[in-house]
């Protein structure tokens, strides 16, 4: 790698966790992407790409976009799909010490690409591993253990209040994928963890399935 004998360096995960003798077997697995840096908080010189491979649950293919459990009750499924997307922002901003900002934008300008629904918030952000986990169908965001890094670390179920206030809509980890593929053909998530300088972008399309 062209490292001089007297030069210091670290090896980290994409979440900037330094690889040490103690955590090597835990963090270094087949297919994992690693950074070779001068320091853990070094600014990346250019964008990096990581291909994510996972086996989708069959319900992702069979049920996504159908919303059969809403339609069967004779209700319009679109508000439920939007609620699932907003639920992620409610969760991300739940620990904000200042103002919680959640914006919903409907984009129809052909010059910017295909029409889209954009949900923007000022929440705590997600790491690359948490973005990866988002794609896994039926991986409940409240019960992820072991190899799964939850986007609800330290989650404690709130007191009984309307679900629209406590971010409990997609408790079973299913809603986000169904909502995305009900509204459109692909999802793009751009997120910057609050304690990191890195910006992560995740893309998942119907063609990938």
TrEMBL record:
It comes from the Eukaryota. One of its GO terms (biological process) is double-strand break repair. It holds the Pfam family HATPase_c_3. PANTHER family: STRUCTURAL MAINTENANCE OF CHROMOSOMES FLEXIBLE HINGE DOMAIN-CONTAINING PROTEIN 1. This is SMHD1 protein. The lineage of its organism: Eukaryota, Metazoa, Chordata, Craniata, Vertebrata.
